[in-house]
Amino acid sequence: MTTIDREIAVNGLPHIDVLKIDTEGYDPTVLAGAYSALQAHRISVVTFEYNTVWNRVNATLQQCVRYMDDLGYVCFYDGPRLFKISGTCWDARYEIKKWTNIVCVARGSVLELEFLAGTSVFGPRLGRPPTQ
């Protein structure tokens, strides 16, 4: 077993543009293994799945969003429309364990501004989160 931080060190990667995590419920574990890279903002965009299989690692979406927020990232539900769920935008009703993707970008980055303005390559998708 390895971690993102270890792979970055072994391969001498200075920066990762997009880290896409799809580990069938172990996404929070992968995020924990990327702590140093995330803290240093060596990853521009992080996407991960959120669903019922997170029960395997006893993690919640709120815990992951706070973890990313503490590391200086802003998270959004990624669906037909992007919806900010970080910081004061968090609501306990978002903890629905419905199969969805979360995308996080460095706070204050051009990508965050584009996401908020609806002008990023992801398109004008700022809107409401998925419902139960």
From TrEMBL:
Transmembrane segments: none annotated. Residues 2-74 form the Methyltransferase FkbM domain. Gene3D superfamilies: Vaccinia Virus protein VP39. Pfam families: Methyltransf_21 (PF05050). It comes from Gonium pectorale (Green alga). The lineage of its organism: Eukaryota, Viridiplantae, Chlorophyta, core chlorophytes, Chlorophyceae. This is Methyltransferase FkbM domain-containing protein. It comes from the Eukaryota.
